[in-house]
Amino acid sequence: QVQLRESGGGLVQAGRSLRLSCTASGNTDSISEMGWFRRAPGKERELVATIAMSGSDNTYYPDSMKGRFTISRDIAKNMIFLQMNSLKPEDTAVYSCAARRAPNLIGYNYWGQGTQVTVSS
């Protein structure tokens, strides 16, 4: 089993930056990929970014997330981060990290509880 815990959320003014962290614990050797998702009030959950957790730090961003969001990792600490710049009120959401267990190629097996990000105008 893997446990995920997010931190770094909060209330921020539009235009400012925020950095989220996610720490994995437990059977972390089984993790092949991690990602950040968000769910805004009344909307479906959407992918923000993913990063490989072994070898090259391959990252993926949906087109809608490119430019202001940067995912990174610290494998030694079993952590990933999400740097969010030029935040907008529409970025307000609960941000959750997720982990995929090898050898799965799709889907995520573990989820954190999420951290609230609120961007005021």
Describe this entry's structure for a reader:
This protein is mostly beta strands and 121 residues long. The chain has strands at residues 2-7, 10-13, 18-26, 31-39, 45-52, 59-60, 69-74, 79-84, 93-101, 110-111, 115-120. A hairpin with a 4-residue loop joins β7 (69-74) and β8.
Order of helices and strands: EEEEEEEEEEE
- DSSP summary, beta strand count: 11
Radius of gyration: 14 Å
Q: What is the average of the pLDDT values?
A: 96
Overall geometry comes to globular
Instruction: Profile the largest sheet.
Output: 7 strands, mixed
The unreliable regions are: none
User: Helical stretch count?
Assistant: 0
Structural class: mainly beta
How large a portion of the residues is in β-strands, by DSSP E? over 45%
Please render the helix and strand layout as text.
Elements: E1 2-7, E2 10-13, E3 18-26, E4 31-39, E5 45-52, E6 59-60, E7 69-74, E8 79-84, E9 93-101, E10 110-111, E11 115-120
Parallel strand pairs: 2-11
Antiparallel strand pairs: 1-3, 3-8, 4-5, 4-9, 5-6, 7-8, 9-10, 9-11
In short:
The protein is mostly beta strands and 121 residues long.
Top keywords for this entry?
55% strand, single chain, 4-stranded antiparallel β-sheet, 121 residues, 0% helix, mainly beta
